[in-house]
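Hi everyone, sorry if this is the wrong subforum. Our group has a chain we'd like a structural model of before ordering constructs, and none of us has done structure prediction before. Sequence below.
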Amino acid sequence: KQYCEEQNSINTIYFTTMKNRNIIIDFMDAISSGVSISHILEKALVIASYIGNDKLIKFINCEKNGYPIDEAIPDYRRVNARVEAVFVGKFISPQTVIIPAKLIEDHRVQDLMSSVNIRESLLQLEKMSQDNDDPLMSVELSATYHPLIESMFEKSEYTVEKAYYSFPKTSLQSIIRSFKTLLHDLMLQFDKDFDWDKELSSTPNKEKVSSIMNNVITHHMVTINDFSPTIANKKNVIEVMERKLILPFNMAECILFNK
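Answer:
Right subforum, don't worry. Here is the predicted structure as tokens:
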């Protein structure tokens, strides 16, 4: 009888640990299979909550709901972009100029004007990447930087009416792919390092999760001051301005001369 009870206990532990491990393995398969990002996020949040690691829960929630302006973001959410500015003046119609960031001497400002931090939720990014045919996306640049852009040119009577980052829509898809890759790598690390003789939520496994999170997630996080921008379809940005922005300045011939 005692042998049978011990054997039943061993079987229970075995099937419980195999079930727990299968949760991780099945999730990795789901990530690789091309299921919707909403399904991946929901399942990731269930696993994170079951494991009970606050940093993992916060990471998944930020990807699901978007990153607050004061929150560090993963490096894959920092997208290369160019700044386009709409100049207006007394004797010219509105004209769009591509601002060459390399002309800015302050490297910090140069960096801020050649890349943009994308804080929207993955659900929004997936929707935006699927909902329109425009290959370019736009993010409005803070008006705080209009004087800086104007100072790059000699003719002070021309002012910046609007400025925005422009970047390929494929950058949004790249963010989603990078998140999936990072999440898959996390699950692989969990599968490799966990003590599968214990529950996922056991203290030893929680400690391993904390170590993995510090090594993997923290390594990818970057803290950058930005302007709380909102992504829009480039076509919509132009429509909101109620002007047709067709011909950009010819930087070699236009009436605004770079210093």
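For your construct planning: The mean pLDDT is 76. Residues 2-33 form the longest helix (32 residues).
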